[in-house]
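JOB MANIFEST
job_type = single_chain_structure
chain_count = 1
residues = 88
[input]
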Amino acid sequence: MCTYTTVKDAVDGSAKGPNGSWFHVSDVTVYFDHPVHAMAEHTLNIDFADPSKGPSARVALELTAASARQLVAAIQEALAAVPAELAA
């Protein structure tokens, strides 16, 4: 069953695109749905994009729920290890 829950937000970062060049990402979309490529029935899908540069300025991730939770924990652990003045 799909929830159609979609979370969109602004981000500030860079991503390496399919042609091997880096581009700025300004938007993130996160949703739990059927994947396009991953071998799972449902995945947490994360799209990083710069809509001003068209559809090719996009990087997509499809993670199983367990992998998504591991990613969240790894991000929190990495940020917790950074001195506060660097992570402001």
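[summary]
Residues 65-80 form the longest helix (16 residues).
The helical segments are 65-80.
exit_status = 0
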